[in-house]
Amino acid sequence: MKSTNQPIDGPEGASASFGEAPAIILPNGGYRNLIAFRKSDVIYQGTYVFCRRFLPPYGDRTVDQMVQGARSCKQNIAEGSAASGTSRETEITLTGVARASLAELREDYLDYLTAHGESDWPSSDPRKTAMHSYATSHNDWRDYARLFAERPAAVLCNLQLVLINQTRRLLERLLKSQEADFRRHGGVRERMHAARAAARGQEWEQALWNWLSSARSGAELGAREVAVMGAVRRIAAKQRQKMGW
User: Fold this and answer.
1) CB neighbours (10 Å) of residue 32?
2) Which one-letter DSSP state was computed for residue 15?
3) HSE-up of 73 (CA within 13 Å, CB side)?
4) Are 202 and 18 in contact (CB under 8 A)?
5) What is d(CA 172, CA 27) in angstroms, rounded to the nearest whole number?
6) What's the CA dihedral at 60, 61, 62, 63 to 10 degrees?
7) What's the distance, CA 87 to chain centroid?
8) Are 201 and 15 in contact (CB under 8 A)?
9) Among 139, 182, 233, 238, which is most buried by a count of CB atoms within 10 Å?
10) Are the C-beta atoms of 26 and 187 separated by less than 8 Å?
């Protein structure tokens, strides 16, 4: 930019606002503070104790399926949270897997009740109402350890069904929040592109500043200002033509 006749052209994709470049790695982790994760830990620990107390230790694949299903929910919430900084898509996928794992585990508990002549208590049953109230305000394993060590199988099955239903609803809300966040921020590729565009815009702005501030007279500054405005109009015209506006 040494001559007043030098053309000024903005970089392809330059930021219009010249603001700060958006973050590429978004905040992530913190899953241990999620109520859904804490409840999923209760479900996993409770499933492990339930299987140890009421199912045969060998020769029954149901034990492995139930424990792995419960663990899958907890682990996928954690892994999704950890991945969210670089891939919202992965976070959404893993949260969906966690929810699906609970659906499978729920069927295992219902099958156990049916096989042993028991049933899923209706929501109008005072026992179910009491369980729902307790589970709503208690989200940590220490609140349930004694119950799972002492209560009969039918009671624990119904308690797990309550916990599973509550956790599934929490995961559904979490998924909606993650999807909204993805629409707002995009994936890592979009953020990288936006960051590069913002950086190019900042470089262009600095170059303009250096060129204009180096003018040796008011007349030279005016001529450079006209050149800059002409360049802006040319870029805007190209953009309108490109977009069909």
Assistant:
1) 11
2) -
3) 31
4) yes
5) 21
6) 80
7) 9
8) yes
9) 139
10) no
Token code pair at residue 151: 């209560």
Q: What is the DSSP letter of 11?
A: P
What is the per-residue DSSP string for 169-233? HHHHHHHHHHHHHHHHH--HHHHHHHHHHHHHHHHHHHHHHHHHHT-SSHHHHHHHHHHHHHHHH
pLDDT tens per residue across span 140-176:
999 999 999 999 999 999 999 999 999 999 999 999 9
Cα 19 from Cα 86, distance rounded (Å): 22
What tokens appear for 77 in the block? Answer: 């919430």
The pTM for the full model equals: 0.66
Instruction: Tell me the mean pLDDT in the region 83-105.
Output: 87
Cβ atoms within 10 Å, residue 63: 20
For residue 9, which amino acid is it? D
174 close to 36: Cβ distance less than 8 angstroms: yes
Half-sphere exposure of 158 (CA within 13 A, CB side): 19
Asked if residue 102 lies in contact with residue 73, where contact means CB atoms within 8 angstroms, the answer is yes
Residue among 106, 109, 122 nearest 153 (CA): 109
